[in-house]
Amino acid sequence: MATSPATRTTPPARARRTDPRRDEGSTTEDLVRVYLDEIGNYALLSREDERRLACLIEDGQAAVLALGKEPGPRGARRRALQRAVEAGEEARRQFIVANLRLVVSIATAYQGAGLPLLDLVQEGNLGLLHAIDKFDWRKGFKFSTYATWWIRQAIQRGVARGGRAVRLPDHATDAVTRLRRARAELVGRIGTEPSAAALAEASHVPLERVRALHRHLGTPTSLNEQIGDGEVERGDLVADSGESPDDEALEAVVAGAVDGWLRQLDESERAVLRLRYGFEGAPASRRDVAATLG
């Protein structure tokens, strides 16, 4: 049981001054322990819970839009919309607190990467909020699987910019991340600091941008450097430049729709479209299509 501020025994001032770093570390550990204890009180969500809360969030968002229209709804309709907004906000809160342990479990893998655990958790929580806003339960994703990508990306970006006094925008952070990876690979290959031109070629970042961002790259480090307990290498902390879950899902939907449309055409029409729009390679000109199909 926690001691109240009024009855807590305060150590002598001299004892606190003898080793301030130990006191600071103890305070941080206490904060982490309190945070973990607090979030452990929240129940995890079932798939049905996720669908139910996601629907309430959607209804609340729709209600916000309806209330913002001119002229706005009145009377019972307005009160119903306001209740929907409140229910949506509460559903979002439940979604957040039920997944805070997921953020901590992911953040602990990045300890030793340059940010304190609580800072890593804070960055991960931003990713969690983004995942909740983007989550579409109709696509069949389990939320924890879907949210993990966003949480990791947010933490990786936080690590990438954590050592800089000036906070760069995300698009610049992504470029710096690519440059750091390219430089580490080039240093390992050639044994010396690469030129700006070599960095530009290896990272696919324009030369002018390489020069502008060069001061943000810091000291070269190996991508194979062990981080934390040794289970993670520094290269694992580089943000994934691949497609997001939303992009991948959208691409699959579009591909399925296109295939459905093509099946409605005869064989020659399908061949023309596939060649013209490069479905199986680079797009072909009209002349090339005519030459290929005769």
Put simply, the count of helices is 13
For the biggest β-sheet, the strand order reads: 1-2
Morphology call = flat
CATH hierarchy class name of the largest domain: Mainly Alpha
CATH architecture of the largest domain, by name, is Up-down Bundle
Strand content: under 5%
Helix percentage: 55-70%
Q: Provide the gyration radius in Å.
A: 26 Å
Total number of distinct structural domains: 4
How many β-strand stretches? 2
Parts with pLDDT < 50 across at least 5 consecutive residues:
1-25
Derived from helix and strand composition plus strand pairing, the structural class reads: mainly alpha
Q: Could you give the distance between the termini?
A: 85 Å
Biggest sheet, open or closed, and with what strands and sense? 2 strands, antiparallel
Map the helices and strands.
Elements: H1 13-18, H2 20-39, H3 47-67, H4 75-98, H5 100-107, H6 117-134, H7 143-161, H8 170-190, H9 196-203, H10 207-213, E1 226-227, E2 232-233, H11 245-262, H12 267-276, H13 286-293
Antiparallel strand pairs: 1-2
Helix pairs in contact: 3-4, 5-6, 5-7, 6-7, 8-9, 9-10
Please provide a written account of the structure:
The protein has 294 residues and is mostly helical. It folds into four domains: 36-98, no CATH class; 99-163 and 225-240, Four Helix Bundle (Hemerythrin (Met), subunit A), CATH 1.20.120; 168-221; 246-293, no CATH class. The chain has helices spanning 13-18, 20-39, 47-67, 75-98, 100-107, 117-134, 143-161, 170-190, 196-203, 207-213, 245-262, 267-276, 286-293; strands at residues 226-227, 232-233. Strands 1-2 form a two-stranded antiparallel sheet. A hairpin with a 4-residue loop joins strand 1 and strand 2. The longest helix has 24 residues, at 75-98. The protein starts with 12 loop residues before the first helix and ends with a helix.
